[in-house]
Amino acid sequence: MASSKLTALPFVIAFFIFNGLFTLSLAKSSPLALTQIKQQKQEQEEPFVGFNLGTDVSNILSATDLVSFLKAQKITHIRLYDADPDILKALAKTKIRVIISVPNNQLLAIGSSNATAASWIGRNVVAYYPQTLITAIAVGDEVLTTVPSSAPLLLPAIQSLYSALVAANLHNQIKISTPHAASIILDPFPPSQSFFNQSWSSVMLPLLQFLSRTGSPLMMNLYPYYVFMQNKGVVPLDNALFKPLTPSKEMVDPNTLLHYTNVLDAMIDAAYFSMKNLNVTDVVVLVTESGWPSKGDSKEPYATIDYADTYNSNLIKHVLDRSGTPLHPELTSSVYLYELFNEDLRSPPISEAHWGLFYGNSTPVYLLHVSGSGTFLANDTTNQTYCIATDGVDSKTLQAALDWACGPGRANCSEIQPGESCYQPNNVKNHASYAFDSYYQNEGKAAGSCDFKGVAMITTTDPSKLFSDILVLLSLVTNETWDLYSL
């Protein structure tokens, strides 16, 4: 989860070799491209992008409204950090697939008692499946690195839950695994030299053997954002953001001669090599968390809307392009973006509350640019978005933003002057919304052009059309003719 992302490991990137030192072609085969993984790829569904759904959100949507929102956005996969009964019930008879989770604080009870595990499966799985499409159970979250004292209970909890699934004859439909932080992998670059922290060998080896036996994925939380932040000057920003690179700037693994154009692929391949070192070659990687924050304090200058938009948009395209990784071009990992909503109730640093694509009320924080990726994410409505003043902002603050927009911002404010068509209603919020939108449109709806120090937000509802609709309703109700000057 977000607060534990800071456990991202210190990276030693010895294989970022530039200026054409390595121009050899990609190795065309690798010892890990095995029949088992290819077969699993054929059996699994097409790679997808899902969303993590945290609930530390003020004014969060009701479960029913949430599901309606997911459907409107064409979101087909979500991951919950618990097994919220209201959400699971609301998901019934939809095509939305969900990973449910066992919180870390429940590991002790489930790992110590088969009866407790069976009760958990009955209460949170059997009660909803198959009307609600539960696809997997995530047991704990980054247990080895955040609550190491619970590590001895992790595999027993997984095995007990699996036995309960077998008893319910659901073990072939629902997989069980546990999400790990990237820091369980040591010496991750170059990927071919990667290995799991040997302190956890007593857990990782039997866990991987279980995943292999049951056809379950290795769940990994992978954040190129933290790799970049901890290695500025070594890891180029473009590598973290999936930006196109010249061959001289690609990362080259000197042992395999594989070329890496982005950090995430290198992190995924590091997991595959780490498994290979334990003689496990038939488990696929599922990225259960990845993302980029849109706002941070002075210590996180790269936490911006622009970079968040770039990373998440390019990540979505990368997954949906089905290009795999340099080591496994035949196998593309699905990814759950962290996260759907800004969790504004989370503790500092500031970035912790700004990983979402949407605010809790479902308005977008920023608009992804994923055109060409089918109907996924209805919020990619680049030609149908507007900028308006946020509710609850005091008039003095709004007036200052309005003055800037009409002055240095060069917004067209002529229509909100006295006697002009948009002067009424004569209040600061209405005038500010008009000016904000004028500036936003003039800037080509660029990322960050609808902010005004936090007093503006993007909406997909045309504010002028909404206001016209209100006037029509007033006319119908009162049998009077209403116009702007009537208010």
Give your account of this protein's structure.
By secondary structure, this protein is of the alpha/beta class. It is globular and about 75 Å long. It has helices at residues 35-43, 63-72, 85-90, 107-112, 114-126, 143-146, 151-167, 201-214, 224-230, 237-240, 263-276, 305-320, 395-406, 428-442, 463-478; strands at 49-53, 77-80, 97-102, 133-139, 175-177, 179-181, 185-186, 195-196, 218-221, 251-252, 259-260, 285-290, 335-337, 386-389, 456-459. The chain has 15 helices and 15 strands. It is found in: Cell membrane. InterPro entries: GH, Glyco_hydro_17, Glyco_hydro_17_plant, X8.
Spatial strand order of the main sheet: 5-4-3-2-1-13-12-9-6
Largest sheet: 9 strands, parallel
The percentage of residues in β strands lies in 5-15%
Cα radius of gyration in angstroms: 25 Å
The total of beta strands comes to 15
- Percent helix range: 25-40%
Distance between the termini: 48 Å
Briefly note the structural class of the backbone. alpha/beta
Arithmetic mean pLDDT = 85
The general outline is: globular
Please, how many helices?
A: 15
Enumerate the spans where pLDDT stays under 50 for 5 or more consecutive residues.
7-35, 38-43, 468-472, 481-487
List the secondary-structure elements in sequence, H or E: HEHEHEHHEHHEEEEHEHHEEHEHEEHHEH
